[in-house]
Amino acid sequence: MKHAVTILALAMGLFATNASAACLVEYKARKGTEYVQKRMSVPDNACSVGAATPIVQSTLADQGMQLLAIVKVTPGG
């Protein structure tokens, strides 16, 4: 019985984590002549292209990269 309670508690924790997970942003960027298409997480309150853009731009600028386009924003990513 003790194991069942532990497993249930762990499962509930995983569901709670997924329910409050950040959004996943897929973007295209470049650094010099290198072009990349990658993903990054942004907070739930930035789960739209308009809200995610300044966050992604700032993060990429810190890495010396330029954002070219947001390809997709996926809630709970």
Would you write up a description of this structure?
The protein is of the alpha+beta class and 77 residues long. Helices cover 42% and strands 35% of the residues. The protein has a three-stranded antiparallel sheet with strand order 2-1-3, covered by helices on one side. A hairpin with a 2-residue loop joins strand 1 and strand 2. It starts with a helix and ends with a strand. About 19% of the residues have low confidence.
Question: What's the short story on this structure?
Answer:
The protein is of the alpha+beta class and 77 residues long.
Highlighted features:
77 residues; 3 strands; 42% helix; single chain; alpha+beta; 3-stranded antiparallel beta sheet
